[in-house]
Amino acid sequence: MLKLIGAAAVTGVLVAAVALPAVGGAGMTVNAAADELRLLPEELKEPPLAEKTTLLDADGKQFAQFYFENRESVKLDEVADVMKTAIVAIEDFRFYEHGAIDIEGTFRAAVKNVSGGGVVQGGSSITQQYVKLVLVNAAETKEEQDAAIAPTLSRKLNELRYALAVEEKYTKSEILERYLNISYYGAGAYGIQAASKRFFNKPASKLSLWEAATLAGAVQNPSVTDPSAGKASRDRLLERRNIVLSRMAELGKITPQEAEEARKKKLGFKNIEAPGGCEESPYPYFCLYVRQEIATNEDFGKTRKQRERLLQRGGLVIKTTLDTKAQKAAERAIKDYVKTSDKPVASQAMIVPGTGAVKAMAASRKFGRNKKKNEISYNLVGDKAHGGGAGFQAGSTFKPFTLLTALDQGMKLNDGFTTGSVYHAPSIGSFRDCKGNGVGDPKHPVANSSEGGGGFKTLTTGTLGSVNTFFMRLQQEVGLCETVKMAKSLGIKRADGKALGEFETFTLGINEMDPVTVSGAYATIAARGTYCSPMVITESTDRAGKKTSYKPKCKQVLDEEVADAATHIMSGVFTKGTMSGVGGIGRPAAGKTGTTDAYTAAWFAGFTPDLASAVSIGDPRGAFKYDLTGVTIGGRYYSYVYGAEISGRIWKDSMIDALKGVEATSFTPVNMGRFGGCSGGRCAPKPPPERDGDGPRDGRGDNGDNGDNPFRQDGGGQEVNDGAPIGPFGGAPIAPAVP
């Protein structure tokens, strides 16, 4: 049998060589061609077809896809019978009767090509066409692609050798299935399933006669009959469809009446878009984070190139942690306070404590490259490693890291110091970074613009008031490097990927951050000291159906009771601190505002036992050049933007909505036996005895600060400029300009 097939193939090649003048070249004879034949089956390497990768939310609903070629491979029994009939009728009507080459078809094509003086009709079988498409698909360069379709005898001979092997390896049904899946139909649709959806908004199993004839006609020259290219192309496709219908009737596959009824149908091209990439996703920032997570995660390949190729071609189904309820809650809250047309941008991330699962990533700007529409082309919510930018200085959201360091070193809730309204480093180099270098310059003061003066502040009152001078003194006591190490253990790293700036004003938030990172750090406190890397992928399924699950990557980085004590203090921010003018969310919550020096950015980060979130606002054109003073945001004018004013309100509204239906969970009470009271040397000084004519001293500082609420309230309890006075990294920080 093989000899017969081989002999037939030889005959076909010789006919093709004669029929196609360009194949043989000058001086090429039939005898010379025969000498070169040596036609034996040769194994065809069939690399996997490029298939789209789909992203699913936590409920299994698609929200994004990536593809090099828009393709969804299907089994032959998932294709309508009329589609199989149509493609065989027009491309290779004797497909089930011949071997690798249709001798009759080749002779017939040869006669027409010779009489026509050129290539009038092709004679390739479906098997040969499949081989050619495989070779084109495997080509990685333009030169390789050209070679795969070159009109040369050597290419044709190789194609036949491969076709012989394919016919031995697969059944006719398997070859047809592979051909339908690999073929290009036009309009960016590869494979019969994608083409059915693109052209007619239905799966291949539901195709009607006239629809099947349309797609069968499209494969011959899809670039000429591409219906998305305009009316002329659609007219050519309609003509081609009718040719298919006539051929089906001629072969007796349908009746003449069925053909005539189908020809009366309009083309019916629905032009269903198959949006790819994050720009087309309803949740672009989450999509960007997932895309970059795949590109940087070695679980998806050894090199970045391999991982990106897998994303574009691998046909993966990626299930993510995206919670659309939380996502929409964040989007609604942001929209209420910041417009898409505003130059300052608000960004928010939500993370589950104890797992690191990222539930939402939202921002006020639309993702895209249209600057006229105020779109932005990078991830506003994530760090540079996940497609983000440089971020914004985090301000006083860093103060809890110093608080945690103090509690971890044994300080109690009411331990404190007497501080002035301005802090000076004790001496040059009095702070030590983690390399042992001395930093700090007494000539550059840190001021309290939120307080007119100083006074005695405890860990509790200093935190609730967000007192700069107190936290500078506290960091001096516990150590700069120790504070930096504490922050790093909670996942803190700069948004731009550079090393953290370890200067004396570290506690005041001089480093630029992104909401995902800050939210993850606060989730660690909520989880009683368990840090979990931000996680966006829970499961991936490859094209063969193999599932891989991904578990949270967590570790205990902090004493549970230390985290409880910090939570206890930070809970008071809503009642006695810088969020008191905004209020809480109706369930146990803790957090910290962050208004940077000179109002360059404003933050709020907070958590419940069930969900942590961080919100930032700043101007991506340059936070120092375009600060948040005298600005209109969301249609409202602000002389100064404080951490609680916009970011805090977004946080409050979004958290209330995101947690609807979730039973409130209480924090673990602080161990008062360990953290209650104060240490002897750090207790508040006793007031002097009463004097004649004077009432008892009230324990207030020289600016009249109240110990329960030790800060000036502007605009309903907002902290005023509680962030970090800084200078360029590598130089001494500068004193803040107090508004």
Biggest sheet strand line-up: 2-1-6-18-19
Q: Name the helicity range.
A: 25-40%
- How far apart lie the N and C ends? 94 Å
Strand content: 5-15%
Instruction: Note the quaternary state here.
Output: single chain
Give me the Rg, rounded: 35 Å
- Which spans of ≥5 residues are poorly predicted at pLDDT below 50? 1-11, 16-35, 116-122, 691-739
The count of DSSP E runs of length 2 or more, i.e. the number of strands, is: 25
Mean pLDDT rating: 85
In words, what does this structure look like?
- This protein is α+β, with helices and mostly antiparallel strands and about 750 residues long.
- Helices cover about 35% and strands about 15% of the residues.
- It has a 5-stranded mixed beta sheet with strand order 2-1-6-18-19. A 5-stranded antiparallel beta sheet has the order 8-7-23-22-21, with helices on both faces.
- β21 and β22 (about 600-605) form a beta hairpin.
- α1 (about 1-20) runs antiparallel to α8 (about 155-170) and α17 (about 400-410) crosses α22 (about 560-570).
- The termini are far apart.
- The model is unreliable at about 1-10, about 15-35, about 115-120 and about 690-739 (pLDDT under 50).
- Keywords: Carboxypeptidase, Glycosyltransferase, Hydrolase, Multifunctional enzyme, Protease, Signal, Transferase.
- This is Transglycosylase domain-containing protein.
